[in-house]
Give the backbone structure.
Amino acid sequence: MSFPERVVVVGFGPVAARFIDVLEPSVVSGALQLTVIGSEADAAYNRVLVADVGVGRTSPSAIGLSDADHLASLGAEVLLGTGVRRIDRARRQVLLEDGAVRPYDRLVLATGARPVIPYLAGLNPDPLHPTLPDGVTALRDLADARVLRAVVERRGDVVILGGGILGLEAALAAAEEGARVTVVHHGDYPLARNIDDGGGLVLASALRSLGVRLVSGAKAVGLEQSGGGAFTGLRLDDGRLVSGDLLVLSCGVRPRVELAEGAGLPVSSGILVDHSLRAHHDEHIYAIGDCAEVRCASPSCGNCSGNTAPSGLIGPGWKQAEWLAESFAADLAGASSGAQRYVEAALPPVLMLKARGLDAVVAGEVSADPWAAHEDGTAVALWADPQQGSYAKMVTRNGVLQGLVCVGMPRAGAELVLLFESGAVLPPDRSSLLRLDGAEASASSASSVTDPAAVVCRCAGVSRGSIEQAAVVGCSSVAEVSASTRAGTGCGGCHADIRTIIEQHFQQPASV
Ligand SMILES: Cc1cc2nc3c(=O)[nH]c(=O)nc-3n(C[C@H](O)[C@H](O)[C@H](O)COP(=O)(O)OP(=O)(O)OC[C@H]3O[C@@H](n4cnc5c(N)ncnc54)[C@H](O)[C@@H]3O)c2cc1C
């Protein structure tokens, strides 16, 4: 190792930003020499809010997470708009697209994920170098957001391919800002892979009432293009044409592993790293965020026996970034015990639709038939009011929530998620949960989950106890709690919960 140690970070997304943030004191002290290389023209920003930029609700500067000039003033080298082409593990250096090289003692790969480009006639099928025609975007970065913005601004026709959460969130936001929006998707209703029939039908009708047109059960086969090659419509296999000014591809993401793969490092869904976040077989290379798959080589490791594919969510990436930066700092200070292990928190996946005017949440096993006689203690409670756009399904086993669907009932949904994650037994009168959204419920009706360990902000992994503690020391607004704890700095879906906790502490309405 050289002194100061040379740390090179490839990728400058939100996870790299968090890593650099935590490592900043070591840069300032001169204990390490940091180089950050990002292929985007912008320094890191909160990618979760890219659709909000696309519909004009916020600006690129408001979602910035890093300041390249500030980092440079601390002595870090920041290369923007520059991709890393290859890793030369033998010489321990990276080769940039412009031919330059940067040597490293430790290399951190934070290369994230890329959108899946579906096979459609008229789209470039090269997944590594997708060249999308005019009028087609994948809504992953700020350049994509600018393309969407231009169409939303002139209230154009936006066609969204994919009925998953991100597609629906973009659809609702664009429709609310005045665009004409059509969502084209496979299933009978959106979120078909996750939600049950009743919830899906209520969700579909709520989407329609908010101005989103749905083309369900559709299989897209190709693009219709103008003479100049720009998108004019999406052709379906039954011959139908969905016309539009812009096609937004929302068909999932795939970890960017090619750099690691090209260097001979083992990859599965993501770049394989052990419980030190170190790549298998190379002690100088690490991976974090959407590109990283934490799976150690031990066949008997209980943490690595199930599905270890990257979640594509920001929460685990931020945790990894903090953990790795702290472990680097400890190494540099000679304080590392060498015994710490990064283990992915075992929070079950929860799908949350974050949109103005429509809340939906789905988690766990939701397909159980409410009318069947279950012999394993399974019971199903259902509530549906399709005219009002509200639906709730609670699947319990011996009273413990195994799965939930909640549409149009934000407070019941939030409460059910807390109960689901804590494994608590539901109250025998399930309707008490539904009443949280009733007209008589007060703005700060107490949650039955008061466990300080309950996670309120899933993005930043902040517990109820930490938010209460922030309120105790004087934070009286969501912004103050965010600044103090980082709660609410990701997708923002927990802002209402943070506000409620502050209100419960101060017993008066909290400001934003
Ligand atoms: C519209 C949208 C909404 C989302 N909503 C949510 C949400 O509600 N909740 C949630 O948890 N997550 C959400 N996500 C996912 C979240 O944004 C990602 O989990 C997060 O961005 C991962 O961060 P990352 O830094 O690991 O990777 P990325 O954000 O993908 O950043 C990786 C960076 O590395 C760069 N790079 C790649 N290869 C190279 C190379 N060879 N050389 C140099 N640079 C390179 C890329 O250009 C990119 O800038 C959303 C994503 C999108 C697009």
